[in-house]
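Readers of this paper often ask what the protein records in our data store actually look like. Such a record has a labelled line for the sequence and another for the backbone structure tokens. The tokens are whole numbers drawn from a learned vocabulary of local backbone shapes. We quote a single record here, exactly as it is kept in our systems:
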Amino acid sequence: MKTKDVALYIEHKWVKNYTIPANRSYILMAYIVYGQGIVEIENRKTDVKEKDIFVVNPNTSVKFISKNSQKENYDFEIHYLLFEKDFLRGEWERYADEFIELERFFYYDGKNYIVVRDNDKNEIRNYIVRLTNEYYEDAPARNSALLGNMLAMLPIIFRRYNVEEDQLFSKNTLVDQTIRQIRNTIYQNLKPSEIAARRFVTVDHLGRVFKQDGYDCINSLRVEITKDILENTDRPIEHIPMVFNIKLKYLQQIFKRYTGMSMREYRSKYHYR
């Protein structure tokens, strides 16, 4: 699903009841152009209608179930985009202050999907239409145009997300800076006390700001990196802890706690073949 050197796939579909399987390594973004019904994600059902937008992390199944009463050849009209998790990661590192919210969703929070609605001006759909046109036209600077439109569209989607209800993002500068530091030093196996010292605060204060133990953020990132290694490489499991300079037993314990399965079970289920 790669278009030249851009890991992005776009399609406009007219479908009846439609299922997107979990065994994928791509982020899914689906925009409902027409139709109403139910979207089932990880056994959780959500009513869906025109202008609803779903962003769904990899390894998560998505099922569209129609409620349309009209007898037509299709029940849903959907714009959908699939893109690799690292498609924009370099840009997030370059513009970390602007993209920290997206980065948390894709790399830290363990939240598998969000749902938002487009506005009356169809602002998000307009971006999708531009993306679709660029995708299917082999015009000069095509890849730059695709990347630019994605970078412009995703922050708008995440701004629409109900921050107060789900508390996915924090505007606290200390939290943003600390998450960035953890990500940049994840391979150094820093302790929460060392992280706090670099931010010139105490461990207790940092914990209150995060509203969680400092180790939780570190370990959730370790688990995400481990999942990526298990999915996309054949590296022996006993060698993975060396990436973080920690012991195998400890990594096995936190991986099981965060995912509900062993590293071997996870690789068996999700490894790309």
